[in-house]
Design brief:
By secondary structure, this protein is of the alpha/beta class. It contains 8 helices and 7 strands. Bound molecules: S-adenosylmethionine.
Length: 247
């Protein structure tokens, strides 16, 4: 990679990290509020679909860009996975740690290790995990292809990736209304409550630059994933993509 490209990617990463650090304390509240609690259902579905792919044994799952840990907890509590969670923003991980400790104690189970790390340079050796998840994280990476390749690298052969991300609404009238909400109302309300208008302006901007459903399928296939499929959630506001590292 050229030095200029590296500098651009480093600059992007530090801006994203600083932005999430600023909103970490209000992230969960705004997530649930602005999505009308749909985000919870979407993460539950990720856990369910991943379990279908991984089978019933206790899988080892890496939750990348775990943020405040909601998907990590879902995987831990609902599918009994041994979960490792990673993110490069310490304030987000601190919120996750406060939620995860009581949940682990209540269940009498092992905790979820929270590891500070960059999704483009994951601190794990090749073929470590049965499953890898990334929820609302992929679109934030400075390079989506390298991100997918890194997720592929840490998966065991036969292991599955689940990507939950905002996508392209597919119902025409609904799509228009949603765009108005997403690009106008959401940045306003998000900015008001979080104190960072730019963070909630970044959300629709980053989604508009992210590949749509079929393009993401193609990119996953390009890095080597097989059995790639997707499911639209809530009319395509979000989509869940699944793929397998070949045996
Ligand atoms: C929108 S939040 C999603 C958090 C969580 N997965 C969820 O479902 O709510 C995006 C997260 O991605 C993390 N992130 C963005 N770029 C990253 C990178 N290059 N490496 C690791 N984490 C990253 C941010 O710090 C933030 O916590």
């Amino acid at each position: 990679m050229s030095d200029t490209r590296k500098a651009i990617e480093n600059d992007h990463a530090s801006r994203v990290r600083d932005m999430f650090a600023t909103i970490a304390g209000r992230y969960d509240l705004l997530n649930h509020l602005l999505s009308g609690q749909m985000d919870k259902r979407w993460r539950r579905l990720v856990a369910k679909r991943l379990r279908e792919r991984l089978g019933s044994k206790e899988p080892v799952v890496l939750d990348v860009a775990c943020g405040t840990g909601d998907l990590s907890l879902e995987l831990f509590e609902k599918i009994g996975a041994r979960v490792v969670a990673t993110d490069f923003c310490r304030p987000m991980l601190e919120v996750a740690a406060r939620k995860i400790a009581p949940a682990a104690e209540a269940g009498g189970q092992r905790a979820i290790p929270l590891i500070e790390g960059d999704a483009l340079h994951l601190p794990f050796i090749d073929t470590s995990f049965d499953g890898v998840t990334i929820a609302f994280g992929l679109r934030n990476l400075s390079n989506v292809e390298r991100g997918l390749a890194e997720l592929f690298r840490v998966l065991k052969p036969g292991g599955s990736l689940a990507v939950l991300e905002f996508s392209k609404p597919v119902i025409p009238g609904f799509s228009f209304l949603f765009q108005v909400y997403f690009t106008k109302l959401l940045p306003f309300v998000g900015g008001l409550i979080s104190g960072s208008r730019s963070a909630y302006q970044y959300l629709p901007d980053s989604v508009s630059r992210f590949p749509d459903q079929t393009e993401l399928v193609a990119r996953m296939q390009q890095v080597g994933f097989e059995r790639v499929e997707y499911q639209n959630l809530t009319g395509g506001i979000a989509a869940l993509h699944l793929g397998m590292r070949p045996q």
